[in-house]
């Protein structure tokens, strides 16, 4: 849940919504109120965008999975798989392991495909994700 909270805060900051007004010292609850009252025009689209990337468990409504590249890409963070490390959905192979093998094999999709029995799309998504983290 802390990761999801930070994800939302980062996206708000990326869209120019400040948590605090300059020179004002407030607690966390007051900061969130400032965020909501000072940036409502940004909040709804950001929440909609992030909601498309997150699976919520029912009936609790807690975040259960996050697709950081979007649902159309197979990279997922799921606390029940690979201890929550980024992995390929339905495969449980960590993206860092795929990326490292890809680099070690001179960026050969075929070598990684044979070794991990993954599709080219799964491999490319893992590589793209890890390169995005490194950037």
Number of separate strands: 4
Largest sheet: 2 strands, antiparallel
Number of helices: 6
Intertermini distance: 25 Å
- Uncertain regions: pLDDT < 50 for 5+ in a row? 26-31
Distinctive features:
about 140 residues, globular, mainly alpha, two-stranded antiparallel ribbon, 4 strands
Compact description:
The chain is mostly helical and 135 residues long. It is built from six helices and four strands.
Describe this structure in words.
The chain is 51% helix and 8% strand. The protein is mainly alpha-helical. The strands form two sheets. The protein has a two-stranded antiparallel ribbon with strand order 1-2. Strands 3-4 form a two-stranded antiparallel ribbon. The longest helix has 15 residues, at 120-134. It is globular and about 45 Å long. The two termini are 25 Å apart. Residues 26-31 have low confidence and may be disordered.
Secondary structure blueprint with pairings:
Layout: H1 2-14, H2 28-38, H3 40-51, E1 54-56, E2 63-66, E3 75-76, E4 87-88, H4 95-104, H5 109-116, H6 120-134
């Amino acid at each position: 849940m802390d990761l999801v909270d930070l994800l939302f805060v980062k996206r708000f900051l990326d869209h120019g919504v400040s948590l605090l007004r300059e020179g004002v010292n407030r607690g966390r609850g007051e900061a969130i109120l400032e965020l909501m009252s000072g940036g409502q025009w940004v909040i709804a689209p950001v929440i909609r965008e992030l909601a498309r990337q997150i699976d919520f468990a029912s009936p609790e409504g807690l975040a259960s999975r996050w697709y950081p590249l979007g649902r159309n890409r197979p990279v997922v963070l799921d606390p029940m798989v690979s201890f929550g490390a980024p992995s390929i959905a339905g495969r449980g192979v960590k993206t860092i392991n795929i990326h490292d093998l890809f680099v070690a094999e001179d960026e050969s999709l075929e070598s990684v495909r044979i070794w991990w029995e993954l599709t080219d799309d799964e491999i490319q998504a893992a590589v793209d994700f890890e390169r995005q983290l490194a950037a």
